[in-house]
Amino acid sequence: MGADHLGVNRPSDTFMKIKEGANFGWPYCYQAGSKVYPDPKFNPRAVKLDCRKLPLANTAFEAHSAPLGFEYFGPEATTELHNSYLVALHGSTRKSLGRGYKLVRVPAASPAAPQDFLTGFFRVTKLMDGLQMFSATVLMLFS
């Protein structure tokens, strides 16, 4: 979950594995890279929540990458997509940041760094969340 009051490099946009009953810290904490911090606006001096006790995201994307949607490819998928997610990164409205505007592959194993899968959308005004349509195309390409 983004928060503009933290600047252009924080917080990371995160991809979490949801667990019933787990507390992921929002809005009191945020992740930047591989560390979770108290949000100075909502949790000054970490008095409302101890952010050190929160789970880390499966993947942390650069701040303002704006993930919009994802598609999971299970063990039956081709080698390139086997047990991984494709995540659409819309990109920041601040184009000068140059973040997002691509599809990334995220291995299902945790933690995992995103890997560029399809790039070159930076000049396009919007990267649509068309993963349902796109996934069919990708499957044809890798069949």
Structure description:
The C terminus is likely disordered. The strands form three sheets. A four-stranded antiparallel β-sheet has the order 5-6-7-8, covered by helices on one side. It has a two-stranded antiparallel sheet with strand order 1-4. Strands 2-3 form a two-stranded antiparallel ribbon. It folds into two domains: about 60 residues, no CATH class; about 80 residues, no CATH class. The protein is mainly beta and about 140 residues long. The chain starts with 12 loop residues before the first strand and ends with a helix. The longest helix is centred in the C-terminal third of the chain and has 11 residues. It has one helix and eight strands, in the order ββββββββα.
Q: Which spans have pLDDT < 50 for at least 5 consecutive residues? A: 124-130, 139-143
β-strand amount: 25-35%
Total separate domains: 2
Number of separate helices: 1
Computed over alpha carbons, the radius of gyration is: 16 Å
Order of helices and strands: EEEEEEEEH
User: What is the helix content?
Assistant: under 10%
Shape: flat
Strand segment tally: 8
Distance between the termini: 35 Å
Sheet/helix structural class: mainly beta
Strand order of the largest sheet: 5-6-7-8
Q: What does the main sheet amount to?
A: 4 strands, antiparallel
Average pLDDT figure: 83
